[in-house]
Amino acid sequence: MANHLAMENLSQNNHQSSVENVPVAVVMVPLPLQGHLNQLLHLSRLVSAYSIPVHFVSTTTHNRQAKLRIHGWDPSAITNIHFHDFPTPHFSNPLPDPNAAIKFPTQILPLLRALTLFRQPVYDLVQRISATVGRVVVVYDSMMPYVVQDICSIPNAESYCFQSISAFSLYSFYWEAAGKPVLPTEAELVGEVPSMEGCFPPEFAEISKLQQNARKFNSGDLYNTSRVIDGFYVDLMAKEKITGTERNWALGPFNPVWKSERKDTDNGSKCMEWLDKQELNSVIFVSFGTTSSFSNEQISELALGLERSEQKFVWVLRDADRGDVFEGEVRRAPLPENYEERVGRKRASAL
Q: Start and end of every Glycosyltransferase N-terminal domain (predicted)?
């Protein structure tokens, strides 16, 4: 990738530019779901700190989502991050089903199918950029190979696959898919990970197969992880060439690690003020991400369990995202009666 030494330094949070006038541009091609958009937008900030222009590619809707939900910095304040808003394709936008037996977010499947329409627009954009720089580097989400597969025909282009989960998690997925062969002694913990059997609907398996079959052009894998935590599995992924490459980089953390000076008056700021007053290691954080939905009964059980634990906590309680987060109403699941008042008296915090 463009200046490998500089990219390795990202994992050490060295934000001072060590490369000047490098004739290279980077194109980010994220999967347009929150956990994926957010990671690659944070990586865009880090890359741009090396005076490298970054082109962030998504639909108008999802670029708007990424910019609105980013924390710790302002994308509009960085002049060498360029957002390319592709027209949002038509796709059905069903509500999440909180009562589904399988908790896979099937509401995003129509969006995932529609993304194949971006194959030609992304190619055209990369080709235009390639004519203006010595080298163009494409960083694409591991669920977006179909969209970038034609870039291999551009002589001065190279691509890197972004893995949105830890090397440990990815290794455990591949290990299970391979029939659970004998693990290295140092990786025995992988055997304790719950099985993924029954977690994915057939429709998602078809989409994943389409993407994996299109992964023909890859110079290496990038991880939002740290070698201090995940280094053994980063090296194991490389040694066994599990994703087809032995070139892996742990570049995390992508998120800003300094405290923002911005003073907000919203509930998020109040939560941080409360958290700052608590003793070290005295609060647990409870979140199930942006694609998980729970029934009212499940939420009630979680609420009561947290309350009875007598543990201080921050609980991010939200409904799952749809393919288009700006369309329609958002469900607000009810908490048990007087719940927030009760836990508040115990100096716990529920969001």
A: 24-256
